Amino acid sequence: MAKEKKFKSKTVAKYRKWDIGSKALSVGTVITPLLPATIITGINWDEWFNKCGTSLPLGFASLMITIIVAMLGILKSDTVLKKKDVALVYIAFILLLLGVTNLFLASLFTTLGYMFVFTGLGVLASAGEYLTNKMVLQPKRAFYKDLVEKNELDNKSKRRAERIRRAEEEKRLAEEEREKVDLL
Fold first, then answer.
1. How many DSSP H helices and E strands does the chain contain?
2. pLDDT grade, residue 158 (50/70/90)?
3. Which candidate, 105, 165, 138, 174, places its Cα nearest to that of 15?
4. Nearest to residue 63, comparing CAs of 88, 20, 34, 28?
5. CB 8 within 8 A of CB 153
6. Residue 114: pLDDT band with limits 50, 70, 90
7. Domain span at 145
8. Angle of helix 58-75 relative to helix 87-105, nearest 10 degrees?
9. Are residue 33 and residue 96 in the same domain, yes or no?
10. What total of structural domains would you count in the chain?
């Protein structure tokens, strides 16, 4: 007996591709601003933690504030400034300007300036990921998801359609039963 080949839907494959891409960009949107901070912290670990005693230096505290602002900007970018698509860009440019300003203040602020600049670049990259996800991947993902569900191309949509058909059949049978009872 020959083994039957299972039908593979190109529509389902495209939907899964867009879905994975969208989820990857969503994760990247949050992770990208953390990368510069993690790298800078690793580079300055000895200075900030081993030689500073019990208190954290200004550089690390500023870095943490920058990261918190960046993460809030990413998470609340739909409501910040009521201009959904430009909020992250504004935040990135503010961080870049703060970083460049600190680069020129004094040699003590050089590390702080680089932290702001790199974190600002990370937030700017995050904004690009967010906008690409929102404007390119999400519409295509939604289109293919709709196709998959309407045409019952995957198991989940088949089960859902079967439940709907079963409920409609039960409703029809219940109405017929009521009509029979009313006739008696």
1. 8, 0
2. confident
3. 138
4. 34
5. no
6. confident
7. 10-151
8. 170
9. yes
10. 2
In this structure, the chain runs to a length of: 184
Say if 2 falls within a structural domain: no
Alpha carbon of 31 to those of 22, 24, 36, 105, 155: distances in Å? 14, 10, 10, 30, 33
Q: Quote the tokens at residue 87.
A: 């909020």
Q: Is 32 within the bounds of a domain?
A: yes
Give the span between the Cα atoms of 10 and 8, in whole angstroms. Answer: 6
pLDDT band at 86 (very low <50, low <70, confident <90, very high): low
Which structure tokens are listed for 178?
A: 């009521």
Please report where in the chains the tokens 């929102």 appear, as a residue. Answer: 134
pLDDT in tens, 94-104: 777 677 666 65
Residue with tokens 């039960």: 170
The residue type of 13 is A
Distances (CA, A) of 82 to 38, 73, 77, 86, 87: 30, 12, 9, 9, 8
Tokens of 161: 């359609």
